[in-house]
Write a structure and sequence with these properties.
By secondary structure, the chain is of the alpha+beta class. Among the domains are: about 120 residues, Nucleotidyltransferase, domain 5 (2-Layer Sandwich); about 140 residues, 3-Layer(aba) Sandwich (Rossmann fold); about 110 residues, Dna Ligase, domain 1 (2-Layer Sandwich), CATH 3.30.1490. It is built from 17 helices and 35 strands. The strands form nine sheets. Strands 13, 14, 15, 20, 23, 24, 31, 34 and 35 form a nine-stranded mixed β-sheet that branches. It has a six-stranded mixed β-sheet with strand order 3-2-1-4-11-12. α3 packs across α8, α5 packs across α6 and α11 packs across α12. The longest helix is centred in the middle third of the chain and has 31 residues.
């Protein structure tokens, strides 16, 4: 899988080249390199939080070194680089985006603070409001009004607009959000504000709500547009700098980015729609999980990604993750764009353990990449989950990170002794470390139960697909706690999200708001809108350099029952003319989908159409990953090591993952050491490796 290549020649015209996936996490930046012969090499490098591009370029240099060529030679032979970044998320977490101003319809400047009455924790009377993206003094209402059909009721008061902008200039506003009532029906007023802003506020980023989110309701549109304005300058600078570095090193193509909806687009396209990459980090892993599970004929499963900072859970049914677009809260702001439905909790290898008021806590605070766990020898001084795993003997201190990092187990023991064992009055350091291990597993198991129960699904009946740098170590114990009987762990688990970036397609989602009872829907108007959206999405894909010869255009409708504050996305059958028969079928499909997801359907009620959309996907060639050779011989352990399993020290067989062949089985307790991750097989479990490089643990 990772044999070095040397003496590479320049890429011939028309010849297949390298493909590289780069996924930036909170602790590590993961990389996958697919060679022209479809063999792969995986690697990791420390994330550089202050400037993620430094970690990306360092990772690319490591790939080039492994291939025995220079970085410029690698990049000029590379056909595609797909990147996943947490820059937008970090900007919202740290609230260090652009100074943002808002221009909205008169009387509506406080919409963002009203939040539709939503409060994250209704039982906490002291919960402070979110840090404002645009302070009240930087939000301005101006006279203008459209009605619910998009007709002008009051003309835009351009004098008021200029007055507001001149005050913003004194306030040193760097980015401007414009949100007018019903502008998704006619964006003329918002577009005129942009023209004025180019005169009054030259150089300021501008986000128009009818371009960011062309649908109702007002609060969702306001929140999404403000977030876009807040993170846009940061994302634009980051992508601009990264693309410039890549070009200077010889990369001849556009950088591609993963979006939160699970599709790809070019960095230039994303720079104008920065909010589209918010929460996109976990999407790549879910896509790879769907691809991998399909090779094992599994369509319904729970995907879990345990990295260094977070634990991401996604319920997959019928081979596809849910993509939600109605109630996506990220860092206390609502994002109205379609997003792969992944729920995250602060549980990872870097999660910090502490004793608070006599009780053990693990996470959500993380040691991150800097300084990291104590055992990394990078200046960390607070015990983490990784430190506990090292003390319990699960991690090989001499083979961690492929032998590039020697773990300081003794330093981890001392910290757990001082900060955990003594305050809790426990008998041994191992008992304290096991407590950390059990508590983080319980937190992750609770996250799985919450996600599955909210969808009316019994987690015990579904396989668990586990990945991430730490997923393989903890999955077996989580499955036991939840009663899950089958676990799938890919050999590429530590960089699985980066691999997923290379398995997805370019994708654009166009939406149009059209609020009307289904019984009174104008089929001709809906057909016109579908054609318009298909033409626009096709043009956008072509302008980004993607072929649409084999593109798929899926039509959807967002429908709800009267009084509901959320809607369901219902696919339309076929791509023919939208007529009364198609409308009737759509209503029937909505009732059936609502019953499947929520256990009931109100067929005596007339559903409400809230929006329609077109999801355009340009087909692209994907890696055809090589299969592993098989063997009928029993697997042989390379050594035994003492590990603290289930409350006592056990002499545990250790297997070399690189030498295992397909069809070989390993009975627990046992440990499989891959170069960048560790698979723990607990007592009563058996692991079998298949030809696709997947460990099946049962």
């Amino acid at each position: 899988m990772s044999t070095p290549r040397s003496n590479q020649k320049k890429k011939r015209a028309g010849a297949a080249g390298y493909r590289i996936g780069v996924d930036v996490g909170g602790t590590f930046t993961d990389l996958v390199l697919v060679r022209p012969d479809q063999s792969i090499h995986i690697d990791k490098t420390a994330t550089t939080p202050q400037d993620q591009s430094r970690g990306v370029m360092e990772g690319l240099r490591r790939l080039a070194e492994h291939e025995g060529i220079s970085l410029p030679d690698l990049l000029c032979q590379t056909d595609r680089i797909v990147h996943g970044t947490t820059t937008a998320d970090n900007t919202l977490i740290q609230m260090n985006g652009a100074r943002t101003g808002l221009i909205t319809s008169e009387g509506h400047r406080d919409e963002i603070e009203l939040r539709r009455g939503f409060k994250e924790n209704i039982w906490d009377p002291g919960l402070p409001p979110p840090t404002p993206i645009a302070r009240r003094r930087e939000r301005y209402g101006v006279p203008e009004r459209l009605d619910h059909k998009g007709a002008i009721v009051d003309a835009l008061d351009e004098t008021a607009v200029r007055r507001a902008m001149r005050r913003m200039k004194k306030q040193e506003v760097e980015s401007l959000a414009v949100v007018f009532l019903f502008s998704f029906l006619d964006g003329t007023h918002e577009s005129r504000v942009r023209e004025i802003a180019r005169e009054e506020l030259p150089g300021v980023d501008i986000s128009l709500s009818h371009e960011v989110l062309a649908k109702a309701p007002e609060f969702e549109r306001t929140s999404t547009t403000l977030v876009n304005a807040f993170v846009s300058p940061v994302i634009r600078r980051y992508l601009g700098n990264l693309q410039q570095e890549l070009a200077e090193q010889g990369f001849p193509h556009q950088l591609l980015m993963i979006q939160s909806n699970g599709g790809l687009m070019t960095a230039d396209w994303v720079a104008d729609r920065a909010v589209s990459v918010l929460g996109s980090g976990p999407a790549g892993g879910v896509i790879a999980a769907c691809h991998m599970a399909a090779t094992a004929n599994i369509r319904d499963f729970i995907s879990v990604d345990m990295g260094g900072t977070s634990y991401d859970v996604c319920l997959v049914r019928d081979g596809q993750p849910a993509v939600e677009s109605s109630w996506n809260w990220h860092h206390r702001y609502l994002i109205g764009l379609p997003m792969v439905d992944v729920q995250s909790v602060g549980a990872g290898g870097g999660s910090i353990a502490s004793v608070v008021a006599g009780a053990l806590h693990v996470g959500p605070e993380s040691a991150g990449a800097e300084p990291g766990p104590i055992c990394y020898r990078r200046g960390g001084d607070r015990p983490t989950v990784t430190d506990a795993n090292a003390v319990l003997g699960y991690l090989n201190p001499d083979f961690f990170y492929g032998g590039e990092l020697s773990l300081d187990v003794e330093g981890a023991r001392k910290a757990i002794d001082e900060q955990i064992r003594k305050p809790l009055g426990l008998a041994s350091v191992e008992e304290a470390a096991l407590g950390i291990f059990r508590l983080v597993n319980a937190n992750m198991a609770n996250a799985i139960q919450r996600v599955s129960a909210s969808q009316g699904v019994d987690a015990r009946k579904l396989p668990l697909v586990a990945f991430g740098g730490n997923g393989a170590l903890h999955a077996g114990m989580q499955a036991r706690e939840l009663g899950i009987r089958k676990i799938l762990i890919p050999k590429s688990a530590p960089t699985f999200s980066a691999l997923g970036l290379l398995l997805t397609d370019p994708k654009i989602i166009e939406l149009r708001s059209c609020i009307t009872p289904m019984a009174r829907a104008d089929c001709r108007e809906l057909q016109r809108l579908f054609r318009e959206m298909q033409a626009e999405s096709k043009a956008a894909l072509r302008s980004a350099g993607f072929s649409t010869a084999k593109a798929d255009f899926d039509r959807v409708a967002h429908i709800c029952y009267p009084g509901q504050t959320f809607d369901l996305k219902v696919p339309l059958r076929g791509n023919g003319t939208f007529n009364r028969a198609a409308l009737k079928s759509l209503v029937e499909d909505f009732h059936a989908l609502h019953e499947k997801l929520h256990t009931y359907a109100s067929r005596d009620q007339g559903p409400i159409l809230r929006a329609i959309g077109v999801e355009a996907r340009a087909g692209s060639e994907k890696p055809r990953l090589t299969r592993l050779p098989g063997s009928g011989k029993p697997a042989r352990a390379k050594e035994k090591r003492r590990t603290f399993l289930e409350g006592r020290w056990v002499s545990t067989p250790i297997y070399d993952g690189e030498s295992l062949k397909a069809r070989q089985k390993i009975a627990g307790p046992a440990i499989i050491e891959e170069r960048l991750t560790t698979v723990v097989i607990y007592r009563g479990q058996t692991a079998r490796l298949d030809a696709n490089g997947i460990y099946h643990i049962e």
